[in-house]
Specification:
about 55% helix; 15 helices; 3 strands
């Protein structure tokens, strides 16, 4: 079905159709059973680069361990990374850890409800900030992710994709704004749904389209295929952190042997991890050789 936002009537038709399709393909995800802003912020950070099915398995355990920002902030980095294990992209865990400290200290364990303040938190970009506003606070905001792009391109560009085959996010955001903002009172009254339910429906419908008809978000100008994991720096970073979680402090020679990485590549990786706050690098106690050093997990709370 081709949809349009050109008139108030066409927007009404589009909202009604998309919302009904989304409710038809509803996914019962655990974070949808809470309106706790911290719990929703955690879910959004986890979902940034991990499939919903995997997050659904790990999110409940995380929330049991760290039910409030202050609880997470008081944990050690080792505990945080151990709890995050299996979700990948450990930088998200470190950023969430740092964000928890800011929320605990500055906001007394309450997640801020403004985009401006959310964007000040480590690892929180425009998408995550606006998603938190919608899902945690039911506030209208305009944002895109892969499933939403799939819905918009499937129904608003099915027969009119640009000559280069790519649709700019700017155009997709205009559609999103027209659907949720242009006649915002109509959105609430027509559908009996606020931003929380509206965006859940869009994402659920987009997930169904991708499984059943194909990934239309590939036609988005912002689309990027994921780089191979095997042999990547991401794989090496994960291997380094895994060794440190299992072995504790090690020296560079041990780490090279345990990871199987060549020394120059490992040195570069460790330098990046140290600059990001994951690890500490210390000169070997009995060696004056700067090429010999020890590595351990950092103490973010120091």
């Amino acid at each position: 079905m081709n949809l349009s936002i050109s008139t108030a009537e066409s927007r009404h038709i589009a909202r009604k159709y998309l919302y009904e399709q989304g409710r038809r393909y509803y996914r019962d995800l655990p974070w949808r059973h809470t309106e706790n802003p911290w719990a929703i912020l955690v879910s959004e950070v986890m979902l940034q680069q991990t499939q919903a099915s995997r997050v659904a398995q790990r999110w409940p355990q995380w929330m049991e361990h760290f039910p409030k920002p202050s609880v997470l902030a008081s944990a050690s980095l080792r505990e945080v990374l151990d709890a995050w294990s299996g979700l990948g992209y450990n930088r998200r865990a470190l950023n969430l850890y740092k964000a928890a400290g800011i929320i605990a200290d500055t906001w007394r364990d309450e997640v801020p409800s403004s985009e401006e303040e959310l964007l000040k938190l480590p690892g929180i970009g425009v998408y995550t900030a606006r998603a938190v506003l919608a899902f945690a606070f039911d506030l209208p905001s305009v944002f895109l992710e892969t499933n939403i792009r799939t819905v918009y391109i499937r129904h608003f560009f099915a027969h009119s994709v640009r000559p280069d085959g790519k649709v700019p996010d700017r155009v997709l955001l205009e559609i999103g704004a027209a659907l949720i903002e242009a006649d915002s009172e109509s959105v609430l009254s027509e559908l009996n749904a606020g931003p929380r339910l509206w965006y859940s429906a869009l994402m659920d419908y987009g997930a169904w389209i991708k499984q059943s008809e194909g990934n239309f978000s590939r036609h988005a100008a912002s689309y990027r295929s994921q780089a191979p994991f095997e042999g990547s720096e991401r794989q090496l970073r994960g291997a380094v952190l895994k060794v440190l979680l299992e072995q504790g402090a090690v020296d560079i020679a041990e780490l090279a042997e345990l990871t199987g990485a060549e020394r120059a590549r490992l040195d570069h990786c460790l330098s990046r991890l140290a600059s990001e706050g994951f690890i500490k690098i210390e000169a070997a106690a009995e060696s004056g050789n700067p090429a010999e050093y020890g590595i351990s997990l950092a103490d973010v709370n120091e």
